[in-house]
Amino acid sequence: MKALANPLRLRILRLCIDEALTNQQLSERLGRDPGTILFHVRVLERAGFLRAEEPRRGKRGASERPYRITGKSWTLRTRPDAGHSAAVLEAVRDEVVEAGDDAVLAMVRLGVRLNASDRLELRRRIRELGDEFAARDDPNGEAAGLLLLAHRRRARQ
Questions:
Q1: How much of the chain is in helix, strand and coil states, percent to nearest 5?
Q2: pLDDT score at 143
Q3: CATH of 2-102, one of 1.10.3720.10, 3.40.50.2300, 1.10.10.10, 3.90.420.10
Q4: Would the CA dihedral through 10, 47, 42, 63 be positive or negative?
Q5: What is the pLDDT of residues 80-110, one digit of tens each?
Q6: With bands split at pLDDT 50, 70 and 90, how would you rate the model's confidence at 38?
Q7: What's the CA gap between 52 and 157, in Å, rounded?
Q8: Which residues contact 56 (CB under 8 A, 6 or more apart)?
Q9: What is the enclosing helix (H) or strand (E) of 125?
Q10: What is the pLDDT of residue 76?
């Protein structure tokens, strides 16, 4: 979980879903220093979330190593802490801003009060919805991200 508690690492994983990218390509897409990106790539690789592919020749003829996700992060079912949740929200925020004004396909934001039974049902249905759409992944479809989140609100004082 420590490896996934950083928004930049989460963005690196998201970028390496559809294609293997080199450190330089990641650096350009994320607007970050290549040294910073390499540090985070190595953390993800050591934790088993990224794997290096065979080196290839870059634009200037230098050997570059592309990285692709392993899929390990897709199967994790953990209870994230506040720090991890904040990293996910920051990464999604950056992805939405980067994608532009028409990035959001659908959104619902509510403030409700739920009893224990309703909270359990909501959690179950969110997991089911995520699993359902993960199973529908179409390599020829439009790339989309999905964040389903239910959170506690601070109670009135």
A1: 45, 10, 45
A2: 87
A3: 1.10.10.10
A4: negative
A5: 677 788 888 988 999 999 889 999 999 998 9
A6: very high
A7: 52
A8: 22, 63, 64, 65, 66
A9: helix 116-135
A10: 57
Neighbour tally for 117: CB within 10 Å: 8
Nearest CA to 7 out of 29, 40, 42, 52 is that of: 40
Residue type, 84: H
Cβ distance 74 to 134 under 8 Å? yes
CA gap 44, 145 in Å, rounded: 20
- CB atoms under 10 Å from CB of 54, counted, come to 7
Which residue in this structure is represented by tokens 């980067």?
98
Question: How far is it, in rounded angstroms, from Cα 142 to Cα 48?
Answer: 27
> Contact, 40 vs 8, CB < 8 A?
yes
In whole angstroms, give the CA distance from residue 140 to residue 130. Answer: 19
